[in-house]
């Protein structure tokens, strides 16, 4: 920004200088038209000297008439040559001219220089724009670290939940920043660099700001990608600048987000096209070696790809303290939900623990998003409180994309979907080791036409073979139902088949759950559990014979569970029929409704329950908005179920 102002000022000064010079030269060498006219009228002008002069305008032959009441036109001509001189002399009508004196040399220089400078500025600006660095044109070499104003926006450890271990590890840094002497007195060495490792949205940035907030020190943050510039040397000088700034403001925290952008292993760039990045990384290493943490500058970096970092970064004296920031567990999720709903008025029916149970795999950022979506939904529905139904709907939206209310789905398609989802749900209900079914819907959402959600009582960290097999049968349940009822299958089972095949392959190749293959690992590629599978090159560290065995075994297991599903559904065809009817009528069934359906054998109980809920809700609404002009009715009637929570496995 500042650089822009300076550039602008230079250009403006040049333009002013140019104008002054040209004005000056013009003034000093121009004959006034009135003088000329007088002379011409007196008939004194017969010819004019043009040597070393430039004509800027002449009167044409009408001039003489004009002087006698006719009209004259003005015509511009270029530098005067011999021919023109003759014409003018013949017409006797010269008007104004400029002297080409020594001032003109400066003019020439300025005239060529200004466009050059302007073009240069534009080119540089465009180049930087192309790098995606909008708004930072020409701040070469300046670090772009931002000093966050912590007085307005202070984060403390109280604002962070679900990552207690990480907080504890960082507490030491906080203590040090608060009273450095206490530590250095005994010669203790404080880590210079802390590397926070975790998936996106798990709160790494938040933690770093929390450390600064707790210790009451300034917080400088910069993204790794800000270092990576097109011009060689810029990144390195930014690093230098950043550290200088840090040391000046010590004690403080310097936070480098996405350090992998600059810290990727050296020599990994193809064709050596990353010289600039490597130079920047080298500078970072040099700077890290060149200061003592005792000076009070603590470097915190974050990455979700610790595996690609250059090992030199992780050596002692650099980022030697590594803190894993895991996704929150069920307790953590509840706490995070509480933090983010502090400012959101919640209805009495809201049970955050239930929502937490239904959101395995959600990151802190996802949960924040969920609460936000729910608040928006509640506002759109005209409520003054966020209800459980809002949170449920928000969760579905965050998890699976928005409902596609407008999607045109034919009656026939809807019928197939109803049986398909009922097939999943019924196979789940009829087995003893699967997770309870939480909700079945045939409301299209994201890319799925319908969804069956199962919900474990608590987070699942391991699965038994029985559980995995039954889950396979549930996945096969959708297709099995289509087959039994319509004697036909649709593409709707495609995703089920893919997930089932992947899981079975894991059973055989990774979890040692196949007796034929035995407890051996035949995992393909690089499976980094921390990153949820790196997806690297597929290597096959086993023989062709084993590969065939694996394929046969995977097929056998899947087919077996498919048959289990078919048999279960054949034996309970009436219930399948009833559940599909229920889905067609209500579009969504939650756990209590499924229970009613299984026990009653008809849909009457569900109808009553729906009416009752509606009655309570309207009464509740009336009570909350007494006699207000616009009555707030919730338009969407979606299973505002009592148990409230959703879904680890969504079978579409
Ligand atoms: N443990 C948590 N407790 C409370 N809020 C959280 C937590 N984790 C994430 N959040 C919320 O999610 C937002 C995003 O988190 P943050 O930017 O810290 O994640 P990150 O790990 O740095 O993600 P990224 O890798 O994408 O930069 C935070 O501003 C915060 O509101
Ligand atoms: Zn399905």
Automatic annotation (TrEMBL):
Its cofactor is Zn(2+). InterPro entries: AAA+_ATPase, AAA_lid_3, ATPase_AAA_core, ATPase_AAA_CS, FtsH, P-loop_NTPase, Pept_M41_FtsH_extracell, Peptidase_M41. Zn(2+) binds at residues 420, 424, 496. Binds 1 zinc ion per subunit. Homohexamer. This is ATP-dependent zinc metalloprotease FtsH. GO terms for molecular function: ATP binding; ATP hydrolysis activity; ATP-dependent peptidase activity; metalloendopeptidase activity; zinc ion binding. ATP binds at residues 198-205. HAMAP family: FtsH. GO terms for biological process: cell division; protein catabolic process; proteolysis. The chain crosses the membrane at residues 5-22, 105-126. NCBIfam families: FtsH_fam. It comes from the Bacteria. GO terms for cellular component: plasma membrane.
């Amino acid at each position: 920004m500042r650089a822009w102002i300076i550039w602008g000022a230079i250009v403006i000064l040049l333009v002013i200088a140019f104008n002054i010079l040209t004005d000056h030269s013009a003034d000093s060498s121009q004959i006034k038209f009135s003088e000329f006219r007088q002379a011409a009228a007196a008939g004194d002008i017969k010819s004019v000297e043009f040597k070393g002069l430039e004509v800027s305008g002449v009167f044409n032959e009408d001039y003489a008439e004009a002087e006698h009441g006719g009209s004259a036109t003005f015509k511009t001509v270029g530098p005067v040559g011999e021919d023109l001189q003759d014409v003018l002399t013949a017409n006797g009508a010269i008007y104004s001219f400029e002297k080409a004196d020594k001032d003109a040399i400066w003019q020439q220089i300025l005239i060529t220089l200004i466009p050059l400078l302007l073009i240069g500025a534009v080119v540089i600006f465009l180049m930087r724009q192309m790098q995606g660095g909008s708004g930072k044109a020409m701040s070469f070499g300046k670090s772009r670290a931002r000093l966050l104003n912590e007085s307005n926006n202070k984060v403390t450890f109280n604002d962070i939940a679900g990552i207690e271990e990480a907080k504890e590890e960082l507490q030491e840094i906080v203590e040090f920043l608060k009273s450095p002497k206490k530590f250095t007195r005994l010669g203790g060495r404080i880590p210079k660099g802390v590397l926070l490792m975790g998936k996106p949205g798990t709160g790494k940035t938040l933690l770093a700001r929390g450390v600064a907030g707790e210790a009451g020190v300034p917080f400088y943050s910069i993204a790794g990608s800000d270092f990576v510039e097109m011009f060689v040397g810029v990144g390195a000088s930014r690093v230098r600048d950043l550290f200088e700034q840090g040391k000046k403001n010590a004690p403080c925290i310097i936070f480098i987000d996405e350090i992998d952008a600059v810290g990727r292993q050296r020599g990994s760039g193809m064709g050596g096209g990353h010289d600039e990045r490597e130079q920047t990384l080298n500078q970072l290493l040099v700077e890290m070696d060149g200061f003592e943490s005792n000076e009070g500058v603590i470097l915190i970096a974050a990455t979700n790809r610790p595996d690609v970092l250059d090992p030199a970064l992780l050596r002692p004296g650099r980022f030697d303290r590594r803190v894993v920031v895991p996704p929150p567990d069920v307790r953590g999720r509840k706490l995070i939900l509480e933090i983010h709903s502090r400012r959101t008025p919640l209805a009495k029916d809201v049970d955050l623990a239930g929502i937490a149970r239904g959101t395995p795999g959600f990151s802190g950022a996802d949960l924040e998003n969920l609460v936000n979506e729910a608040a928006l939904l509640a506002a759109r529905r005209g409520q003054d409180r966020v209800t459980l139904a809002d949170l449920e709907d928000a969760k579905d939206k965050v998890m699976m994309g928005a409902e596609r209310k407008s999607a045109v789905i034919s009656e026939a398609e809807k019928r197939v979907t109803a049986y398909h989802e009922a097939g999943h749900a019924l196979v789940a209900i009829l087995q003893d080791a699967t997770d309870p079914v939480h909700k079945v819907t045939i409301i299209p959402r994201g890319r799925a036409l319908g969804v069956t959600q199962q919900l474990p009582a608590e987070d699942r960290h391991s699965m038994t073979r029985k559980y995995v097999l039954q889950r396979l049968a549930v996945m096969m349940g959708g297709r099995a139902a289509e087959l039994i009822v319509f004697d036909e299958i649709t593409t709707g089972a495609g995703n089920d088949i893919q997930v089932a095949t992947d899981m079975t392959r894991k059973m055989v190749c990774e979890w040692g759950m196949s007796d034929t293959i035995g407890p051996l690992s035949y995992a393909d590629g690089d499976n980094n559990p921390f990153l949820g599978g790196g997806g690297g090159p597929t290597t096959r560290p086993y023989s062709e014979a084993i590969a065939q065995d694996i394929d046969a075994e995977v097929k056998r297991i899947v087919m077996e569970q498919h048959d289990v599903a078919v048999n279960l559904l054949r034996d309970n065809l009436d219930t399948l029929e009833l559940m599909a009817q229920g889905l067609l009528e209500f579009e969504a069934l939650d756990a209590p409704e499924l229970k009613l359906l299984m026990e009653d054998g008809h849909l009457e109980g569900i109808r009553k329950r729906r009416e009752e809920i509606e009655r309570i809700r309207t009464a509740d609404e009336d009570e909350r908005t007494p006699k207000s002009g616009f009555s707030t009715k919730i338009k969407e009637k979606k299973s505002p179920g009592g148990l409230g929570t959703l879904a680890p496995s969504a079978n579409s």
